[in-house]
Amino acid sequence: MMREVLFAPSLLSADILDVRSSIAALRGEHDWLHVDVMDGVFVPNITFGPGFVSALRKRYPVEVLDVHLMVEHPDRLIDSFLDAGSDYLTVHLEADRHIHRTLTMIRERGARAGVSINPGTPEELLRPVLPLADLVLVMSVNPGFGGQSFIPSALEKTKSLCRWREASHYNYRVEMDGGIGWGNAAEIALAGCDVIVMGSAVFGAQDPALFLQEIKLNVKEAIAHA
Ligand code: DX5
Ligand code: ZN
User: Fold this and answer.
1) pTM (2 d.p.)
2) pLDDT in tens, 176-199
3) How many angstroms separate the CA atoms of 200 and 17, rounded?
4) Per CATH, is 6-224 categorized as 3.30.365.10?
5) Residues catalogued as catalytic
6) How far does the centroid of ligand 2 lie from the alpha carbon of residue 39, in Å?
7) CA dist 1 to 4, 221, 222, 223, 224, Å?
8) CB within 6 Å of ligand 1 — which residues?
């Protein structure tokens, strides 16, 4: 069976005064909704809290909510984001001294545990916790803002993570986030990425649903001809 690549539009680039219209404009062409949580300390920007996730959960009971915590000491916040209804909860390796415990806690609460690394962090540092991860999020920009340029070292990191998964029979999906759009999605998928996050490319498109349809087709064809 052909490998399926999932698409997770980032609500960071949605219309924050009219998120419902932004989600409606996807017309169900997306797979997950990516929610960027920023605390103004781990990254130089502040965004959504657990109340936002819980409002999404209430209005969209069957959407997969992929919550990306860019916060210091994420262990203090995981309970509130899980109570809010996150399906995937991803924490940064750089932000948590006890990443092993945090990933275990997320799984014990019945959610999917994700771990993320910044562009400056080597993927080798993830190895001890890979058996505990359902998702590994490779940042392809320095987190904080949408609309930045793609940092290509994320491609090699993705390839390593796919190799290690195969060699050790791990189960995580590899996700990439930052600077992804029409020009590089196929290359990213060919590197082995399973979940593509896109903010400005999707919500900046004239017709976000049509854009998703076209980019999915483009990625599918690239995989089929690889
Ligand atoms: C960056 C966030 C991303 C962001 C991506 O800090 O983690 O999810 O929304 O935006 P684009 O796709 O515009 O680079
Ligand atoms: Zn993100």
Assistant:
1) 0.98
2) 999 999 999 999 999 999 999 999
3) 16
4) no
5) 36, 177
6) 13
7) 9, 14, 15, 12, 11
8) 10, 12-13, 34, 36, 68, 141, 143-148, 177-180, 197-201
